[in-house]
Amino acid sequence: MPLPADLPTPLTAVDDPVLARAGVELRLKRDDLLHPTVPGNKWRKLTPNLERALAEGHTRLATFGGAYSTHLRATAAAARALGLASVGIVRGEELADRPRNPSLAAAEADGMELVFVARSAYRELVRARGHPLVQRWGRCLVLPEGGSNALAVRGTAALPAELGGLGERDVVCCAVGTGGTLAGIAAGLPPGARALGVAVLRGEGYLEQEVAALHRAAYGREFDNWRIDHGHHGGGYGRVPAALEEFAAGFEQRHGIGLERRYVAKALRAVHGLAAGGGIAPGSRVTLVVTGLPDGPAVSRS
Ligand SMILES: *Cc1c(COP(=O)(O)O)cnc(C)c1O
């Protein structure tokens, strides 16, 4: 394994009054504790790609992301740990001359060369799967936006095996950005168990197509054991409405676990909302995958 990690990550039961009233059990899969600089689903998605990069003798990784991309940051950290160079194409030309946000500052500190491009040019590059990049930087392994490709999906598919015996009453839940994590979890589930993705951006229809395309790319077929909730994105990517903030802060206080807001808190709130409204059947056991770390200073590993 190119980046040693603490596997399997802890699985903890959470006693929550709202869920208890709805007859729903909750467990947290603490993938946020997986690796200190390449946390959560980013480690699971990157690892098979890193193995490929090393096996094929690549010396440079290139990828894409928005200004707050955790994928860019994780790719920079992983590249540095393996002694590889890295290039990050960032959406938004205007960001070039602004002070770096913590995400981009961290990527740069890990040696990532940041290239800021206008939104239209960015879309072109993403669509061309970065081919113009390969010309500019010579040989490099190009990872898609968000890091979701067939290898990433297969990496994430190892997660359900760490959850013990899963059956008919089990729902494994995760946030959905590009859909790679959900695609892998669904593919790794035993018969009977189901996966629930919570969209963190407006993407009804589009995200379903992405997940199906990733399944075809990774396994040559589609799966029917998953669905995506579109009712809890809070207005769009990166938006954290006051009610979500309040929910997350309350949960943190009651349970002493830091919650990343843009993905994890939205997924957890969706579980609460769906359970209370009958969208998750009584008797279900939900395992929420804590896919990443809260922003800001390091969290305790309690
Ligand atoms: C990137 C990220 C996701 C989204 O994963 P996808 O595979 O792109 O759907 C979810 N949670 C966290 C914390 C992330 O950083």
**Shape estimate:** globular
Task: Please provide the count of β strands.
Answer: 10
- Major β-sheet annotation: 6 strands, mixed
What is the terminal-to-terminal distance?
26 Å
Element order, helices and strands? EHEHEHEHEHHEHEHEHEHHE
Q: What ligand molecules are bound, each kind once? A: pyridoxal-5'-phosphate
* Radius of gyration, taken over Cα atoms and rounded to an integer in Å: 19 Å
Major sheet strand order? 1-2-10-7-8-9
Low-pLDDT runs: 297-302
Provide a count of the helices: 11
Helix content: 25-40%
Count of all domains: 2
- The whole-number mean of residue pLDDT values reads 94
Strand content: 15-25%
CATH architecture of the largest domain: 3-Layer(aba) Sandwich
- What class, by secondary structure content? alpha/beta
CATH class category name of the largest domain:
Alpha Beta
CATH topology of the largest domain: Rossmann fold
